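INFO batch 0412 | record 1 of 1 | parsing
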Amino acid sequence: MRTEDPLPPVGDVLAALATGLWRWDNAAGKVTLDAEAARLLGLPGEQVTLTEAAVRSRFHPVDWNEISGVIQLAVAEGTLAEARLRIMDDKGRVIRTVRSRCKPVVHGNPGAYELIGSIQEVTEPAPGAAARTPVTGDWRRSREAFLLDAGRALAEARSTEEVLRVAAGLSMPGFSPDGLAVFGTEGDRLTVIGHHGQQPGDEGPFSAMSLDTDYPAAEVVRTGRAVYLSSPEEYRRRYPVSWPLAQRFDRQSWAFLPLIVAGRTIGAWLAAFTYPVSFTPDERSVLTTVARMLAQALSRAGTAESERELTDGLQRSMLPTLGPEIPGMNVAARYVPTGGGLQVGGDWYDMIPLPSGRIALVIGDVQGHDVRAAGLMGQLRIALRAYASEGHRPDAVLSRANRFLHGITDSLTYGSTAGPGPSEDPEPRFATCLYVEADPKTGVLEIARAGHPDPVIRMGDGTVLKRPTAGGLPLGVDPDVDYPTTEFALEPGETMLICTDGLIETGGHDLETGWSRIRSVLEEHRPENPEGLESTKGLEELADVLVQAVHGPSSHHTTGPLADRREDDIAVLLLHRSSEPGRVVTSRRTVLTIAQAEPERVAGARQQLREMLHDWADADQIDSAVLLVSELLTNVLVHTDSHALLVAEVIGEEGTRRLRIEVTDASDDLPHKRRPGELASSGRGLLLMEVLAGSWGVDPRGEGKSIWFEFYESAAPGGGALEGGPGYGADADGDDPLA
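INFO prediction complete | emitting tokens
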């Protein structure tokens, strides 16, 4: 052919090269084939227009799925779609392998496009390309396994740091980058979120880079389209301004992919290679899939971190700092939010200086573990602090707080004639609360309780008692509920624990088994600090031990994997009364007041005594002491008009200890022994003390009297000298207040 002769028609040239043309209209679902393309697909050699389903039946099913993914990638990136496909005959046999290259043309809507391309028969894969073609099963299986593993690892990553660590460890099948970087944006600036394969500080020139800069990552963020650079020459030609920044890393190929979430480009991912990579459609498909998973993982991690930061700040802003220091007392507190969700809830604690010079300690739990509970908690805490600061007594503080909570929850639930909105509670919320007013000078505690767990006392020698206290319904249930107060003294060397039910019931425990667990922790704990619980450090150590007993190591406020294992919020408050310097506390002492209107507290006193004598050597002496305490307290309530004050004390070393119990009342009538008949229902009080106690007596006071008895651990059951104390009378004919 002479050079001046016209070129032959394109169709003739392609036919001579055994290359056909096809056009696929995605919107219409039609595929047009020229004669050569029809022949290659096993059809008569003439131009034909077929449905998409008819053409699909000519390809191997696996390869059709492959070409679908390649085409979608080409449409998204505006690049060529290239793949190898097996052609099947009517009997399902492979008759040939073809190579197709096509260019997508998008018509406005990315979902509507045309593919215009060529199809050519091939006899064997190109050298080195076997592992990168859709028809090669080994590479496909490796890729699918890699993507499954990568997807699982990225889905499990819980923070941005973990996502970056997973991305750095990805080993792609057949081509693995040795340099990675994740870029984000702040305003109109590019930021480096993390990188791998470079030295610390190498990210400096790329941080705070303007999005208008001639840098591939900036272009990717601007356009949302990937950039593939197969060689340094291509990089230098396309991005001459930023090439000097990349040149010093000695890489040969680069892939910059957009990180897209919900249609919005949030950043870019760089994968850099020390060897040339041609970025075939299969390789681009893998990189694009990883970029999508990476974007989703970073979005989830960023959202979770923002929520944790927000809720952590919200919860911390609602919790007080303990202070100022209380003379003669130490205080420690812990708050740990529930696992999962927003990690906010309704548990709280507070310490309030009172006008009287005393200190109020408050702990409570608003129903629920959500933002609504946290909001109500904040309102209730402020209300309690206000009522306490006005100087009201504990019962009055809780009564006012009860009416306050009932008012705000009732109005939010039923105040609108249109009914509760989507963000309002269908039912009123309630809250449990324990309010303690402490006198640092005397150790006297006045307690009012609203449906909350009772306090626990750890004595100086480690003995633990749960102190039953009078109480009323939780706050917010009934606006007219009264909250009686209970008074007792915290002795030098003793520690009071108050907490929410999260500390007790977490881990499948109920109130009984949960208290047993807490009691064991308190009794077995031996502070590492030489000063023990007398120091703030020792009390802080005990607070940590209590929290760790429930769910493992903790800080003052815990997040992360441990947080997800928690079933409820935990709030803990410890109050320790310091003993005299140099004094080693070995005794146990408890003081209880039984009011005339509280006869049911006699049973609590008996239980208190049994817990106090848990390690007493003689069980018969314990039973005798409990019987005598019951007799003395009952007689005061029945035969006098005053309250009964019970003081029980264990003194001495184990094995030779002495138990002394005093019951004091305001009546001046002294007891007298009587000899009741067989059918008499009273009159045996002093006779029982004569028989059972090691010693006993009656001490007149300025107003009233004190009846006491003692047991000795080393004495035989019921043994010990029987002696009357000062003021004892033996008039058999007199009235016996102990009857």
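INFO post-check: Residues 186 and 245 are 21 Å apart (CA to CA).
INFO record closed
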